[in-house]
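[step 3/7] inverse_fold.run input=structure_tokens len=220
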């Protein structure tokens, strides 16, 4: 009987030992904290940060700031200096009217002084084309009740003879003015708010581009 009792005791120990092993709580310092959106207290303490982690924080912050700036402050580039953001409609009317009048006046004043016959032909074309474009723009502004800049007083006719490099200087000035006009009209034609003004810009842009191409062809 004693032997039977001892055998039963040994069997009981063998059976219950694994249960005890499983039931014991296992302590793991690296166990993941519950995902409750809060930072564990151990990470908030100064003792938990090493020298490496402390140096990593400002680098991460700087990188995040740089990425943010690249989206917010990056300049809008466009080849050829073209205007990428159109001015509002009233500003376009003012700028286009003033630039058109200046080009007409510059062409009229240059006609008696230009020596190159081809440049004289272009100057006459500028007077005709820009005068017509200015009239069309003024009619659009009038129908919509938009203000148009008052005309400037005519400049006195040039006196004396033209300088030897007058043709070259006038051509360079006209090229620079037409480059600005092309950028202005192109932006308005693409993204202007008023549909009539967009159509005017689309219809007038090829004429200004033709002027620019002719001026560049004759530039020396």
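[step 3/7] decode complete -> sequence:
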């Amino acid at each position: 009987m004693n032997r039977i009792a001892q055998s039963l005791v040994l069997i009981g120990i063998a059976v219950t030992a694994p249960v005890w092993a499983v039931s014991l709580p296992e302590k793991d310092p690296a166990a993941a904290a519950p995902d409750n959106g809060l930072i564990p207290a151990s990470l908030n303490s100064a003792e938990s940060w090493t020298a490496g982690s402390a140096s990593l924080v400002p680098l991460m912050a700087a990188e995040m700031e740089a990425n943010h700036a690249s989206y917010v402050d990056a300049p809008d580039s466009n080849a050829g200096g073209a205007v990428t953001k159109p001015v509002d409609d009233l500003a376009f009317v003012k700028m286009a009217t003033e630039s058109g009048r200046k080009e007409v006046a510059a062409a009229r004043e240059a006609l008696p002084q230009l020596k190159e016959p081809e440049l004289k032909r272009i100057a006459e074309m500028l007077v005709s084309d820009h005068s017509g474009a200015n009239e069309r723009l003024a009619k659009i502004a009038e129908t919509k009740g938009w203000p148009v800049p008052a005309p400037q007083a005519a400049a006195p006719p040039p006196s004396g003879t033209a300088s030897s490099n007058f043709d070259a200087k006038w051509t360079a000035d006209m090229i620079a003015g037409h480059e600005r006009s092309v950028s202005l009209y192109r932006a308005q034609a693409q993204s202007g708010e008023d549909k009539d003004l967009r159509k005017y810009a689309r219809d007038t842009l090829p004429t200004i581009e033709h002027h620019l191409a002719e001026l560049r062809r004759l530039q020396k």
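[step 4/7] annotate
Residues 7-84 have pLDDT under 50 and may be disordered.
The first helix runs from residue 2 to 23.
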